[in-house]
Amino acid sequence: MKTFLRIILALVVIGIVALAAIIFVPPVLTKPDSTIAADWKPAPGQAQYAAQMADCQSCHTADGGKPFAGGRAIESPMGTIWSSNITPDPETGIGDWTYDQFHAALVDGIAPGGVHLYPAMPYENYRHMTEEDIRAVWDYIQNDVAAVDNQVKQTQLDFPFNQRWGIRLWNWVALGKPGFRPDDKASESDQLARGAYLVQALGHCAACHSPRNEIMAQDGSNADNPAFLTGGEIGGWSAPDLRTASAHLQTWSDEALKDYLISGRNAHSAVVGEMQLVVAGSLQYMKDEDADAMVAYLRAISDVTPKPQPASDERTTDRLDAADDPTTAKLKAAADLSDGERLYLDNCSACHMPDGKGAPGVFPALADNSLVTAGTTKGLTEVILHGAAMPSTEKRPERLAMPAFGDRLSNAEVATLATFVRSAWGNSAPAVSEDDVTSVRQ
């Protein structure tokens, strides 16, 4: 009995010591690459480009706020996380940080004072950035971003998520080795390696487009993991599959996929939600060769064979032709309509057309649209209730907007309309309930 008690006591002591070490012993930080000279400076334009490709501005700029001054609400399963001010303001931003501290934040998720950052900051991905790109982003923020005195709202999560020391345990399990290591596909050519780096590290696509595992870490950091980029969820919106046979974009031509990335629209679809911010703040500035590299990599990691169509009319060709589609025929006849069909004709068909194909580059197709058929219905419901706008980009400066229908339609009508478009023109997705709409409107 005494031996058993001694064992229990020893385990308790070990547990207390281990917990104290986790909470109080400073974390071991990844050191900057010592092979890069301390006085290294980015080439002209390199600093801004690295910051754009890392898309720092989208998360660290509130709606209507100053660039990089923080204050954007980021919804997570743990609660709302408020993005920080990363301008060089010494009081409310990062103006008094050293480069080593900035490096630790990007690579290890550790802020000055050993404070663990919530992984809404995608350091899972940024830790695979090159030393040159990390230094370039630092240089841009310190020298080209205007300092803004803006004390942002503090993140206050419920227990146990407010215990940031627990993130240290998560980091031990979730984080891979720092530095970029090409996967099998990326190793085949310099172009694929560049595309992989943009997707995996700078562009941190997996932060949204990969599923999460049991501990809420990204399921795979590169394409050697079959779950990588097979779809995720962010703030209740579906981040679609980019890789498998279910990935709509894998049926597009290379030209259409490239257009979507750099302009936010093509003959098939248009960006909404978080992706609208990504295109506006980051992808529209991609160099032509980088856009080609990203497209090439996304193609290389998929087994889907694209079906290129003429760029002038590359629309939803794998569905029924309008003449053979019963939904289109019924909408054109405008007789014996269901409530969903009537609501569509009254509110949507002028832009999205009776055949659900819209107008290329202007009105997105609803037939075979990943937002329409997503497993989570929040995105579609949000767009119907509150409207949406395409980003204004260098290639497509016009900021086309869909009006909000929340004041015009009741929750029941929105549910009926959304259910209709999720089952029309060959779409096949579950119905939307009135309760689903109510939760989004609130």
CA-CA gap between termini:
60 Å
Spatial arrangement of strands, main beta sheet: 1-2
As a percent range, the share of helical residues equals 25-40%
Task: Give helix and strand order, one letter per element, not per position.
Answer: HHHEEHEEHHHHHEEHHHHHHHEEHH
Uncertain stretches of 5 or more adjacent residues:
17-22, 316-320
The gyration radius over C-alpha positions equals: 24 Å
Shape: globular
Strand coverage percent: under 5%
Largest sheet: 2 strands, antiparallel
Average pLDDT for all residues: 88
Number of strands: 8
**Individual helix count:** 18
Description:
The chain is mainly alpha-helical. Among the domains are: 164 residues, no CATH class; 124 residues, Cytochrome Bc1 Complex, Chain D, domain 2 (Orthogonal Bundle), CATH 1.10.760. Helix content is 38%, strand content 5%. The chain is built from 18 helices and 8 strands. The strands form 4 sheets. A two-stranded antiparallel sheet has the order 1-2. Strands 3-4 form a two-stranded antiparallel sheet. A two-stranded antiparallel sheet has the order 5-6. A hairpin with a 3-residue loop joins β3 and β4. α2 packs across α6, α8 crosses α12 and α17 crosses α18. The radius of gyration is 24 Å and the shape is globular.
